[in-house]
From TrEMBL:
The lineage of its organism: Bacteria, Bacillati, Actinomycetota, Actinomycetes, Pseudonocardiales. Keywords: DNA-binding, Transcription, Transcription regulation. The keyword Cell membrane does not apply. It holds the Pfam family GntR. InterPro entries: GntR_C, TF_FadR/GntR_C, Tscrpt_reg_HTH_GntR, WH-like_DNA-bd_sf, WH_DNA-bd_sf. The keyword Transcription applies. Residues 14-81 form the HTH gntR-type domain. CDD domains: WHTH_GntR. GO terms for molecular function: DNA binding; DNA-binding transcription factor activity. This is GntR family transcriptional regulator.
Amino acid sequence: MATSQPINRGLRGDLARNQVYEVLREQIVSLRLLPGERVSDAAIATSLGVSRTPVREAVLQLEDEGLLRVVPQLGTFVARISVAAVHDAQFVREALETAALARAMGNVTEHDADRLTANIAEQRRAEAAGDNERFYRLDQEFHRLIMELSGHPRAWRITQRIRADMDRVRRLSLPEPAVLSHLIDQHEVIAVGLIDGDREKSEAMLRDHVRLVAVTLPRLMARYPDYFEESSGPDAP
């Protein structure tokens, strides 16, 4: 299983649990822990330099979020990607981000425009370098910036907590040919429309952009059938 540098050994209680939770969640969403992979409380505790108590608490929290599955007599496994959860996240994200875009129209200063264009330029550089991880972080920042410009930055945290399975699908798609270039082109249209005050153009592209995950999903399910579940089934890893 994936490992990490030890977290702050001085942390106890909720602080230790929260750090373990964040590390494990990131490893799951980034696919360093793959769907269906077995995880060990003891191995996690050793790799992170903490006791097993915060690990067990973090595992229960991640199980509640649908990212881990604890199977009696078998162990703890990374949950497979729920197709229903992907569609739910796409629905919520589209609703919130298009509303944010509408609120942001007319609020974009010259400084904000520079931030948007600089972000897209960095995305192009990440693509040229073949750095999918850097592109992913810049993509997150681009969409977070739109939320910030809407005047509702905390709405970003809402989308973050419900989009884990959607983000796992997005991570799977990034290595595919021309995917990054297409996503960046879409970002550019969204940004230009936002800067120019062209709501119709920007919103139409944002909807296409967010819905792209549903377009790529069948292809990825065919390529990685063991990573997905189409509905909640019996307790199985």
